[in-house]
Amino acid sequence: MSDEAPEQFYTEERWQNWLTRVEDEELDPENEDSARLLLNLQDDAAIAIAKIVSAYEDDRLGQEEAVEELNQVRDIVLTEVDFDDEEKMMLIDGVQTSLVPAFYSAEEFIAAGPAEEGTVDDFVRAAASAEAEEDLDTALGYCVQAGTLIIDGEELDMAVVEEIEYGLVSEWVNGLDSLQSAMSDPELVEEDEA
């Protein structure tokens, strides 16, 4: 990293390149290569989040700047996609849904630090219970608290995911898993690694 140019964490062009790949490929979620392409796209965005958090922790970004960077990446990644192929739109929507708590967790971590009580697993179970009660705002809040702990170095045990029913929380936890991978190894996913 040079000191002259401001650090760039993610670009519209980078996201567009991923979308173009998704649009050009024959995607079958059951197929390992298709699944890997979607996971790489998700991990790539999570890595941008991790890099912003790291830059904040290393005092390369102030609090406001870090939140602004997160907002810019979130605006790029969570913008509705317009594909002709409805199934591909649904797959991208799934990736975007997974990433929602990763963005909010990073923002919460920068604003207030990690959750003070509870474990990642406790928060994930609480989120699943809230989802069962159809209280999605609370469920998302619990996932965000889990995410702040993951950013702080706590482990997400994917076994806890097997305990919860498939739904929004399981998708959100999938995004937190990407965030966990990104925090432990924030190396960019090469766009040709699929």
Work out the count of structural domains: 1
Rg, rounded, reads: 16 Å
Structural class: mainly alpha
Largest β-sheet summary? none
How many DSSP E strands?
0
Mean pLDDT over all positions: 90
DSSP helical segment count: 8
State the order of secondary-structure elements, H for helix, E for strand: HHHHHHHH
Amino-to-carboxy terminus distance: 26 Å
Structure, described:
This is DUF2150 family protein. The chain has 194 residues and is mainly α. It has one domain. Helices cover 68% and strands 0% of the residues. It is built from eight helices and no strands. Helix 5 packs antiparallel against helix 8 (168-184). The protein is globular, with a radius of gyration of 16 Å. The two termini are 26 Å apart.
What brief labels describe this structure?
single chain; 194 residues; mainly alpha; 8 helices; 68% helix; DUF2150 family protein; UCP022079
